[in-house]
Amino acid sequence: MELASARLLRGQIPWRGLLLTASLLTYWSPLTTAQLTVDAVPPNVVEEKSVLLLVHNLPQEFRVFYWYKGTTTDLKSEIARYVRSDNMSQEGFAHSGRETIYSNGSLFFQNVTKKDEGTYTLSVIDRDYNALQMPVQFRVYP
Ligand SMILES: *[C@@H]1O[C@H](CO)[C@@H](O)[C@H](O)[C@H]1NC(C)=O
Ligand SMILES: *[C@@H]1O[C@H](CO)[C@@H](O)[C@H](O)[C@H]1NC(C)=O
Ligand SMILES: *[C@@H]1O[C@H](CO)[C@@H](O)[C@H](O)[C@H]1NC(C)=O
């Protein structure tokens, strides 16, 4: 994953910016600049309310991304996927009927119950077919 992020970042640096970037990199890690991250908004959800699993820095030329319930990225745990070349989303086995997947990577989860609490994993297949995985958690309160 670190390799993939580094490659993505290098690809985005224009020639003219190289000198400036080189000096900035002595202060900031290059991996924090374009790193894929996911936030649960809000992280603590009231039962029957909704939560947005918000994705930042989705690779621009990704091929597919998947959302999974839990940390295992198998078919059984797949909530939904989005295929960029087809501009099409598809529900998986773990879809409960309350999740909406957006082309920007985010997953909207409605009417949560205590059983929904826990970890969800985003998996992105980038242009070079690297899989980037990012977990996110939310808690559910009565
Ligand atoms: C993808 O499809 C949706 C409707 O399903 C449409 O509103 C949107 O403009 C399409 N986006 C692209 C990039 O084709
Ligand atoms: C993605 O799309 C959803 C629905 O339109 C929106 O609520 C969310 O803010 C968007 N996320 C980003 C990172 O733009
Ligand atoms: C939310 O789910 C509960 C059952 O878990 C159901 O009774 C209720 O009607 C649902 N509310 C909405 C707005 O879908």
Topology, please?
Blueprint: H1 2-12, H2 18-25, H3 30-33, E1 37-41, E2 44-46, E3 51-56, E4 64-69, E5 78-83, E6 88-91, E7 99-101, E8 107-109, E9 118-125, E10 131-141
The structure holds 2-acetamido-2-deoxy-beta-D-glucopyranose (NAG) (3 copies).
Query: How can the largest sheet be summarized?
Result: 6 strands, mixed
Spell out which ligands are present.
2-acetamido-2-deoxy-beta-D-glucopyranose
Query: Could you give the order of the helices and strands?
Result: HHHEEEEEEEEEE
The CATH class: Mainly Beta
Q: Helix count, per DSSP?
A: 3
CATH topology, by name, is Immunoglobulin-like
Number of domain units: 1
Can you characterise this structure?
- It is globular, with a radius of gyration of 17 Å.
- Strands 2-10-9-4-5-6 form a 6-stranded mixed sheet, with no helix packed on it. Strands 1-3-8-7 form a 4-stranded antiparallel sheet, with no helix packed on it.
- Helix content is 16%, strand content 39%.
- The protein starts with a helix and ends with a strand.
- It has helices at 2-12, 18-25, 30-33; strands spanning 37-41, 44-46, 51-56, 64-69, 78-83, 88-91, 99-101, 107-109, 118-125, 131-141.
- The chain has one domain (37-141): Immunoglobulin-like (Sandwich), CATH 2.60.40.10.
- The chain contains 3 helices and 10 strands; from the N terminus they run αααββββββββββ.
- Residues 1-15 and 17-33 have low confidence and may be disordered.
- With 142 residues, the chain is α+β, with helices and mostly antiparallel strands.
- The chain binds 2-acetamido-2-deoxy-beta-D-glucopyranose (3 copies).
- One 2-acetamido-2-deoxy-beta-D-glucopyranose (NAG) binds at residues 52, 54-55, 102, 104, 106.
